[in-house]
What does this fold into?
Amino acid sequence: MNTEVFASRHIGITERDLQSMCETVGAENLEQLIYETIPDDIRLKEPLKLPQGISEHEFLTHLQELSEKNKVFKSYIGLGYHESLTPSVIKRNILENPGWYTAYTPYQAEIAQGRLEALLNFQTMVCDLTGMELANASLLDESTAAAEAMTMLFDIRSRQQKKNGTLKFFVSEEVLPQTLSLLQTRSTPLGIELVIGNHEEFDFSNGFYGALLQYPGKHGQVHDYAEFVQKAKTNDIKVAVAADILSLVLLTPPGEWGVDVVVGTTQRFGIPLGYGGPHAAFFATKEDYKRNIPGRIIGVTKDTDGNPALRMALQTREQHIKRDKATSNICTAQVLLAVMAGMYAVYHGPNGLKYIANKVHAQTKVLSQTLEASGFKQTNTAFFDTINVSVPDAKQLREVTESKGINVNYIDTETVSISLNEAFSDNDFKLLVSCFTESQVISQTTDIKVAIPNTLQRQTPFLEHEVFNSYHSETELMRYIKKLERKDLALNHSMISLGSCTMKLNAASEMLPLSWANWGNIHPFVPLNQAEGYQEVLKELEEQLNVITGFAATSLQPNSGAQGEYAGLMTIRAYHASRGEGHRNICIIPASAHGTNPASAVMAGMKVVVTKTDEKGNIDVVDLEEKVQLHSENLAALMVTYPSTHGVFESSIIHITKLIHEHGGQVYMDGANMNAQVGLTNPAVIGADVCHLNLHKTFAIPHGGGGPGVGPICVAEQLVPFLPTNPVVETGGEKAITAISAAPWGSALACLISYGYIKMLGAEGLTDATRIAILNANYIKDKLKGKFDVLYAGEKGRAAHEMIIDCRPFKAHGVEVTDIAKRLMDYGFHAPTVSFPVAGTIMIEPTESESLAELDRFCNAMLSIREEIDEASSEDEHNVLKNAPHTLEMITSDTWDYLYSRKKAAFPLPFVSENKFWPTIRRTDEAFGDRNLICTCAPIEAYAEV
It folds into this structure.
């Protein structure tokens, strides 16, 4: 074994395993299996034109050298991004811990109680600090959260406003530039009219449905918006506020003015800058809007035994069901970062946060005083951490500051703003002041401007719950984090075979650099010459993805798969408009598509036309042809997932894409199943024009319990000019659409992972990974043959990288697909994807990372469950499946009233006892939780008797 070959560490199947596995699937060798799986007319004729893979040691050395090309200045730029200090106990035990970063979205609540509790802490923190009633479990960044607020308020306009065609949305000129750009992107296809101006001059006319304010303003001024909000309410104008979360420790919470939405980022709660992300945004609103809030919310309910339990609530299901009627296309969050930010609040508690906020504010006051005493004019009359300073020559000042390793925000030729943060020290103070004056005199004058007026000083307490007042020593927090981790099943325990979600190895060597300061401490708006290491990585990653997809260019800006869908459709929209065909607005989407597809199309201003699927799960070509003919003049795009959502390589794909092009449309390929394409075929070959890639699936960024994700788009030549830009740091094409995400390169820090994945596997390793992913799926399919029916297969009977198993026949035994999912927990496995894309089924994807031994354990568990199904009957409501999962408390109870044994319940196969995972609750009561919605850390007694 060559110990330097990364592929042998990433791919779980050995050369020794291949022969027996090929025998199981009935293929002479692996190449025959691939030939029978992928249509020959779309196979790549040449290997990927990428370098040979490098070893893990070589990669880490390479990335260390690149990191040294980044210049880590002290950045006081602000504009929504601030250096923060990640407590080491959080860095080591969460960010660097696969028990947290390899977990999946908590759809199976019984084995996700740890991160659900951490997210409930996050929601509580957000509600307390904003003064709002309800918060979600995070969004992607502040700017996208503000855009979600704009569209949510648009959706909940009054009946009269909708009747009158009320479309205007006021945006304060104090709003961050990247947020304004994103609002422009989102508003245009929906017909929302942005009106940008001074909030003090706003006329509150009937033409407005909503407004967005920034608190504090983009250059630090803290405005009293109470009167504005009251006038807006009088005129039926709903108000959203983008707020700095640390400032809310000292400032009056916007909720106390009666606003409708508060958004922002929690980046400065211990999350690295990372050249723009990933960071966890927050979205808080009134309980009245609980069915309209975007993203996920975590709620309290009870389990079968009546014990308190947590799960994802309400819109988690509703948004996917709504499809083109959904209020948002968001299907992910920033869970890992939200967990870290919540733990930051747990670790510091209310008193610690007050200390940090007061320190930052005091330093800012002293800086303002010192500069004024030195002859500079500071123009902010009220501020928290940012001052606005008039200077004789900003260009000359910039030469001085950059020579001393400092960045400030250069507003114009005579004005700069300076934003301080918790990492600001006395030495930093002296060095910063020296840039303005060589005297370095700190004024001793006590007669300075009041930085926060009494009317804006926070009076209400926050974070009073016990969890925020108990774990302030490292020992205690370490144990609390570990206690929560033990409640969660992640990849560090067993295979997570989720169809469509690709839970593969997130290699330690790919993850290590995320903790390095030279990658973590770079502000996204620094000059490019300070981020040369990042620029090399991002440029090469774009080129790697171009080769893999066969396309001409890539934008890394979209920071989730849903954002990638939207970005791809917006480039198509811009392309049509540039050709004088802006009327093209019909988007054809197969019935089997992900629920985010139609939601994204509607957000992009398109009308969705659904096409049927045939009995084999493929696109019904006859129905498609009819609808293309019908809508030919207005056809904008086809959205297609390939291989299909049913796990099949459709042989008619080239005919389908050609048909769309003949009628003037573009083809958008959803890249969710790219794990079955890399190195063997690609989107360009099948005839697509744009695709998004889930880097958190195919390209090894960990799911983090429900985020971070990265969803870059790769485009054909004609769409290159329309790739998105950023208002602060220019990116994209010559005719670029406005911003898709807040940062120029989205979640740049996470992109290091995919860069490493491709760099270490190389062309051959990437292709082998795809081959093995297909082999593993077919191996499971054939191991389960005769006991479970596979719903769809290709023309030669092969699955792609995933398959759908039909569980509907088991209803005759009184067994539902949910029972199988819960019973798998007793065997130590996370359930595959349940009831998507077909109700009553499970979709299995083993990935290339799993070993043959693990595949066999999973198959043995499924076959054992099949025997249990045969033993069950519809009359027996207390069989081993209906009672699953079985908790330790249940198994060790003095009472056991079931007809099966405790051993069968908890240790159904010998391998289970070797590595037993105990679910901490029994089945959650979803309906009870939705009827009695509690989404913050209320004391147990507040809901135990509901």
